[in-house]
Specification:
Order of helices and strands: HEEHHEEEEHHHHH
Low-confidence stretches: none
Radius of gyration: 18 Å
Structural class: alpha+beta
Strand order of the largest sheet: 1-2
Shape: globular
C-alpha cells in the first residue's frame, strides 16, 4: 500500500524479535517472482532487505547522537542554532526542510535537523563517528545467512573530505541495508 501511495519502486518490511535479534518475517514488494525482468535496478532474485544499499539519511542520526552523548560533553539539552533551515558551514551549505531556530540535541533528533547534527558533529573526532558506525554494525554483513547480503559502505577515515563528518552525521556518504538500520535501532531498543 505504501509503495503505491508514495510512487516508490519497491519497499520492504522486516519484523525482528528485539530481545534476540531473530528475524521473524521479511516481506518485499514487488515480491521477487513478480519483478520486471527488464528492470536494471534489481535482480529478479535479490532480496532488497539485505542486498540493496542506500544513503540512510536521517535514520543514521541515531549513530551520531549516540556518539555525541558518549564521546563528547554534549548533553541532550544542549542547544545549537538551526539557522532557519539554511546554514553555510564553509565547506558546504546544509539545509533543513523546516525553518528552526535554536534546537536542543534532543529536539534536533526529534525534528531531524541536518544543520544541528552537522554542527554538533564538529565536537566529535573523525574516529568517533566512524567507530560508532562500525559498532552499530554498518559496513559489515549481519550474518543473517541469506544469499547476496551486502556489507554496505562506511568510508575509511583516510578517504574523508572536509565535509564527510558533517554530512555523515545526517546520513549521507554512507551506504546501508534495511536490515542494518533495523539492527541499529533494535540495539537501542534492547539497551
Amino acid at each position: 500500500q505504501a509503495v503505491g501511495e508514495f510512487g516508490a519502486r519497491g519497499g520492504a518490511v522486516i519484523v525482528m524479535e528485539v530481545a534476540t535479534g531473530d528475524v521473524l518475517a521479511l516481506a518485499e514488494y514487488p515480491a521477487v517472482p513478480t519483478r520486471e525482468r527488464s528492470s536494471r535496478a534489481d535482480s529478479l532474485w535479490t532480496l532488497r532487505s539485505v542486498s540493496h544499499v542506500y544513503e540512510p539519511g536521517s535514520t543514521f542520526k541515531l549513530v551520531t547522537v549516540a556518539a555525541l552523548l558518549d564521546k563528547t560533553h554534549i548533553a541532550p539539552a544542549d542547544s545549537f542554532d538551526a539557522e532557519d533551515g539554511r546554514a553555510d558551514l564553509g565547506f558546504a551549505v546544509i539545509n533543513d526542510p523546516h525553518e528552526y531556530g535554536m534546537l536542543t540535541i534532543e529536539e534536533a533528533f526529534m525534528y531531524s535537523s541536518n544543520i544541528v547534527m552537522a554542527k554538533a558533529s564538529g565536537a566529535l573526532q573523525s574516529g568517533d563517528l566512524y567507530g560508532y558506525a562500525k559498532l552499530f554494525g554498518f559496513g559489515a554483513r549481519t550474518g543473517i545467512g541469506l544469499p547476496g547480503e551486502s556489507p554496505g559502505t562506511v568510508p575509511p577515515i583516510n578517504r574523508w573530505s572536509a565535509r564527510t563528518r558533517a554530512t555523515m552525521a545526517f546520513g549521507q556518504e554512507v551506504a546501508v541495508t534495511p536490515l542494518q538500520v533495523l539492527n541499529a535501532y533494535a540495539a537501542v531498543a534492547n539497551d
